[in-house]
Design goal:
about 725 residues; alpha+beta; six-stranded mixed β-sheet; 24 helices; 23 strands; globular
């Protein structure tokens, strides 16, 4: 037998020319942490993602069947001569948090999927009427219960058969005889079916499936008889041992105390993304869009004449103003009194309507019924607020799912726990040996993910927190926890600036986790600018010296830390302190401010902050301290509503935002991609293509041919190449 050839110690890249790379030859150590750095546009992503990861993914796709290939993203072969020693690749790129209202911390980390399995297998169903535990029987469960039965007594296994109103008893009895059943139990007596007896007029007949003397060794016979009785009795059977009363057992999920039906617990029952488990009222969103007085009357200091009722102060004013004047004359409602000073009865009449008058809410509900018109949808949404669903209380699941408990908690109560509390809850679960055997693999996966989240300092998040409410740093760490917590080995991880959005305290912890992952035998290639990660790296690749055509050259490839600082590159000069970022300060103290007062959104504790106008202001703090809650959820959304009259989501809780009158426009620059279509390019995004098309359309040759601006656009018919 020949000796196994050891794997290569490096990933050898030869002749990499992808994008602006200048025919690079490079060796990257396997099982180590490598950082690729350099100025923006120098070719870092071209080397890490468009070359290394693309080739690893391409090789993986080539290895699967033709049928499976149609479901996988197929990347083009990178422009490189050869890559040797490449291992299976996983990419973790910068992405903005999922914007779906159905995505939560639990679903993003797959913890919710394992929770569904746990509740489906080990959850106890409770009756929705009386609260008693509901448990379906099975032949195996009956066999387990038989261990305590006294031996030597006669055991009857009975199948309750319903008397049919449409079929004569003679025909039913004949059918039972053909099926092999020869006796029934009537008034406690065993009666043969031949000759045909006349049983009492009851709704059910107890057919004897089996009769024998009970002994422990008869357990297999008991199981077989119970299976047959359940089939004939449509999920029900009765057991009679000796002279004891008959004991009823049921395979159906129903309460033994009151008969209330229940649902069999399945994993899909605990998913708010499944038709089986979703709350029928809120459809799995946890809240319901409701018309609220605060949105219909945004400024209570206005009068009716000034347009206090916002839906009727815009394009509908001509239609509704005569009706308001008529109502005011008939009911004595003042048109010149501020809304907040009107009597409660008058406000209720104007909002909810009454005899002979349709109020603002019924009017909006009528528009909502015609939501097939885009204009109606836009108007209606402006006056709705997302309020917790009254049917599920915000749990998103149907009532039957919330009747299943594990150690006294529903799945909604478990997901409402913080990650720290959830880790404590699962570590303290007391299961018996049989339950522990079932739950063992599931609990291992849950606890592994929870502890990884704790290590990246996310213990304060709850499992039901929507991912779209997370800050960039929180979303990045959850993405890392989901990918790095999979415990893969001998894998190539390619990461895109994982420290973006992280505080230096969190970056230090991230460096520890990356090195720990490399110690398992994985190869990590990280595109990064953070000095802390460069110093912690085993190997550093510096590209440059400039961007675009001036980039793509290999300036340094070697150990990180002190060795990198001694190199003659732009990166090393900044690390040594020879160069640093400076800017000219605006002289004088600022004289105008935008002030946020009393912000209490998410974890903000009654924060009041002043932002000077005409200055650069940095809002900092550890990840999860409330930076995004203050700047984006409160300041940006409040100013957007004030300046543009638009509101995708309501602003976070706060008392007031002052100083907005000094601003004309507000722009949010976040991590979301700026272009979403293949036709989007810098010239179209910046709006520079419109005057360029106009310039060409005004040329004499274009005017002679009757060409308009659209003839020079690749987004319109006639201009684009069809």
């Amino acid at each position: 037998m020949t000796d196994r050839i050891p794997p290569p110690a490096t990933i050898r890249i030869r002749g990499a020319r992808q994008h602006n790379l200048k025919n690079l030859d490079l060796d990257l150590p396997r099982g180590r942490l490598t950082v690729i750095t350099g100025v923006s546009g120098s070719g870092k992503s071209s080397l890490a993602f468009d070359t290394l990861y693309a080739e690893g993914q391409r090789r993986y796709v080539e290895s699967v069947s033709t049928y499976a290939k149609q479901f996988l993203d197929r990347l083009l072969r990178p422009d490189v001569d050869a890559i040797h020693g490449l291992t299976p690749a996983v990419a973790i790129q910068q992405v903005s948090p999922a914007r779906s209202a159905r995505s939560t911390v639990g679903t993003a980390t797959e913890i919710h999927d394992y929770l569904r399995l746990l509740f489906a297998r080990l959850g106890t169903v409770h009756c929705g009427r009386c609260g008693e535990p509901v448990q379906a029987d099975s032949p195996q469960r009956i066999a387990a219960d038989s261990a305590g039965w006294p031996e030597g007594e006669t055991l009857l296994v009975l199948a309750p058969v319903t008397r049919s109103e449409r079929v004569a008893w003679e025909e039913q009895a004949a059918d039972l005889l053909r099926a092999g059943f020869t006796r029934i139990l009537d008034r406690g007596k065993v009666i043969p079916l031949e000759p045909l007896p006349k049983p009492r007029a009851t709704a059910e007949i107890d057919v004897i499936v089996d009769r024998f003397t009970w002994r422990r060794e008869e357990t297999p016979r008991l199981v077989e008889s119970c299976e047959l009785a359940f089939r004939r009795g449509e999920g029900r059977l009765r057991l009679r041992l000796g002279e004891r009363p008959s004991e009823e057992r049921s395979e159906r999920w129903s309460c033994a105390a009151c008969g209330e039906p229940a649902m069999r617990p399945e994993p899909a029952l605990f998913s708010f993304n499944s038709p089986l488990g979703v709350c029928p009222t809120c459809r799995g969103f946890g809240n319901v869009l409701t018309f609220t007085p605060e949105r219909i009357v945004p400024d209570p200091s206005r009068t009716l004449r000034e347009g206090a009722i916002d839906p009727w102060a815009r394009s509908w004013r001509k239609l509704f103003w005569p009706r308001l004047e008529k109502l005011a004359r008939e009911r004595g409602i003042s048109l010149d009194t501020p809304w907040k000073k009107l009597p409660a009865a008058h406000r209720c009449l104007l909002l909810e309507g009454g005899e002979g008058f349709r109020g603002a809410i019924p009017f909006l509900q009528r528009l909502q019924a015609k939501s097939y018109k885009a204009g109606n949808r836009f108007i209606v949404k402006r006056y709705q607020t997302a309020l917790p669903c009254g049917a599920c209380g915000g749990a998103r699941l149907r009532p039957e799912a919330l009747l299943v408990r594990v150690t006294g908690k529903t799945i909604a109560e478990v997901t409402a726990l913080s990650i720290t509390a959830a880790d404590r809850f699962f570590s303290e679960l007391a299961f018996g040996p049989e339950q522990r055997e079932i739950a063992g693999p599931v609990l291992t996966e849950i606890e592994s993910r929870l502890r990884f989240l704790l290590r990246v300092d996310l213990g304060y998040l709850t499992l039901d927190r929507m991912t779209r409410t997370l800050s960039g740093g929180e979303a990045q760490r959850i993405e890392l926890a989901n990918a790095l917590g999979a415990n893969l080995v001998d894998t190539l991880y390619v990461l895109d600036e994982p420290t973006v959005g992280l505080h230096p305290r969190d970056s230090d912890r991230l460096a520890e986790l990356l090195n720990e992952l490399a110690e398992r035998g994985n190869t990590l290639v990280v595109v990064e600018h953070e000095p802390l990660i460069m110093r912690a790296a085993d190997h550093v690749v510096d590209l440059g010296p400039g961007a675009g055509e001036q980039g793509g050259h290999l300036l340094y490839a070697g150990p990180g830390g002190a060795a990198l600082e001694g190199a003659d590159t732009e990166t090393a000069r900044y690390l040594r302190g020879e160069k640093q970022v400076t800017r000219a300060r605006v002289p004088g103290a600022p004289d105008r401010f935008v002030t946020v007062e009393g912000a209490t959104h998410n974890n903000l504790q009654d924060v009041t902050a002043r932002f000077p106008l005409g200055r650069l202001t940095a809002v900092t703090g550890v990840s999860g301290s409330g930076k995004s809650s203050l700047v984006e959820d409160v300041l940006y959304r409040a100013l957007r509503l004030r300046l543009e009259g638009r509101e995708e989501e309501p602003a976070g809780a706060h008392r007031a935002v002052r100083g907005a009158e000094a601003l004309k426009r507000i722009v949010l620059v976040d991590q979301s991609p700026i272009g979403k279509t293949p036709r989007s390019c810098p010239v179209t995004y910046l709006g520079a293509f419109a005057p360029l098309r106009g310039l060409y359309a005004r040329q004499s040759a274009a005017m002679a041919r009757g060409l308009k601006d659209g003839a020079f656009s690749f987004n319109t018919p006639g201009g684009r190449c069809e």
